[in-house]
Amino acid sequence: MNRTNNSELYERVTTAGKFFGGLPAFAEMIGVQYRTFHAYLSAKRQHNLWPLLPTMLEAFPRLSRQWLYFGEGPMLIGHGTPLDRPVPLQEIAAAAEAMAAEAGGTWGDVLTYIVDAARAEAEKPEPVADSHQIHELQNKLMAAQEKIIQLQDELLTRQKEGQADAPKAMPARIGDSAARL
Fold first, then answer.
1. Which of 71, 61, 69 has its CA nearest to residue 1?
2. What is d(CA 170, CA 181) in angstroms, rounded to the nearest whole number?
3. Residue range 89-105: mean pLDDT, rounded
4. Do 54 and 65 meet the contact criterion of CB atoms below 8 Å apart?
5. Taking burial as the number of CB atoms within 10 A of a residue's CB, which of 6, 35, 126, 170 is the most buried?
6. How many beta carbons lie within 10 A of that of residue 71, not counting itself?
């Protein structure tokens, strides 16, 4: 296991915060007031950071879960890949395989499943609509809109005609049943 010198959670979070633009910006990105966040960055109050870890991982997808939670391995996934580019799937799979081998047991099975699912997803071709298909669908949509407008106009016309042609109700007479009203 590759244990870093940031053995305490608050130290790892501080390191990540400084790396990703500074602690105030980091706190803002995870939706926590800076004063509150800064107060959590101590050994006594670091327990408040645990519920924030999933939010950190969501806000900073390149941050390694293994490193953040346990202080193991590198801080970033895709080390060497520029931050503005996605990490190649092969690199993620290789990292997960290494973690699976290191974890063994149930965790190893889970990580193996994740690796297999990622590979299967990578093999799926992405559907691509060409401009001809898009144009054809737009034309169908326009025709459907025109048909809807035409049917609405026809309905209004029939309703108006129906009101003009409808027979006037006969006045009710005493002794008539309610059914004839």
1. 71
2. 8
3. 69
4. no
5. 6
6. 19
